[in-house]
Amino acid sequence: NAGVTQTPKFRVLKTGQSMTLLCAQDMNHEYMYWYRQDPGMGLRLIHYSVGEGTTAKGEVPDGYNVSRLKKQNFLLGLESAAPSQTSVYFCASSYSRQGAAEQYFGPGTRLTVT
Amino acid sequence: EDKVVQSPLSLVVHEGDTVTLNCSYEVTNFRSLLWYKQEKKAPTFLFMLTSSGIEKKSGRLSSILDKKELFSILNITATQTGDSAVYLCAVGSGGGADGLTFGKGTHLIIQP
Questions:
Q1: Residues B56-88: pLDDT tens digits?
Q2: Long-range pairs of B8-11 with CB within 8 A, sequence gap ≥ 24
Q3: Which residue among B41, B94, B105 places its CB closest to the CB of A42?
Q4: Strand ranges, E, within chain A
Q5: CB contact (8 A) between residue A107 and residue B41
Q6: Which residues of A touch B92 (CB under 8 A)?
Q7: Which residue of A has its CA nearest to B97?
Q8: Nearby residues of B32 by Cβ (< 8 Å), 6 or more positions away
Q9: A26-83, pLDDT tens digit by residue?
Q10: Core-most of A21, A35, B38, B78, by most CB within 10 Å?
Q11: What is the SS3 assignment for A85?
């Protein structure tokens, strides 16, 4: 079991460029989440999905889009990157709604936007 | 807006000491409180608490929740250098998005 994996691990973008972060999980979890972690800010929820084909906004969704075409994958897109999106991005998954089960985290993607 | 506050933000102790980390919260429709340990990469799960007064224990780590006073503590006894990490507290609520609301974390450093 690989658990939750993320690609790429590191990326440097120029302002205005676009990119997609991929999250994959092999635990057959229904729920998947994208968080960003900034110094002094803790982890903040960007978007989440409660099942294949569904997505919803979290606390800080602006500037990001997501898709969940397959149960095991959750994609995070940046259409026009901005320096404020420099952060470490974590994907997580859970077999049940939060409150009933813990979330398992991927290793993170460190993104720098210049 | 859901809020989770951890204290202290950083703590330096010597190996063998006992530490207590604090987490207080204000959330709509509380469901659970979780503790994670984060070393250099992904947060790893420690405990999930849903009921008041029931201690959860794993080795030298233990945690308890007080739903009346809206806080939780994480205790680590006989600390070791491998316990050095950022400890994150997170709360799940029914007040909106399905994700967790995290505190800023406590950066714990264990000196040999």
A1: 999 999 999 999 999 999 999 999 999 999 999
A2: B8/B106, B9/B104, B9/B105, B9/B106, B9/B107, B10/B106, B10/B107, B10/B108, B10/B109, B11/B106, B11/B107, B11/B108, B11/B109
A3: B105
A4: 4-7, 10-13, 19-25, 31-38, 42-49, 56-57, 65-67, 73-78, 87-94, 104-105, 109-113
A5: yes
A6: 97-99
A7: A58
A8: A98, A99, A100, B48, B49, B50, B91, B92
A9: 999 999 999 999 988 889 999 999 999 999 999 899 999 999 999 999 999 999 999 9
A10: A35
A11: helix
- Of the candidates B4, B44, B97, the beta carbon closest to that of A45 is on B97
B24-59 pLDDT, tens digit per residue, is: 999 888 889 999 999 988 999 999 999 888 899 999
A48: nearest CB among B45, B98, B104: B98
Q: Which residue is listed with tokens 């990326």?
A: A11
Q: Please, which residues 63-82 of chain B have a Cβ atom closer than 8 Å to chain A?
A: none
Residues from chain A contacting residue B48 (CB–CB below 8 Å): 101-102
Which residue matches tokens 């994609």?
A75
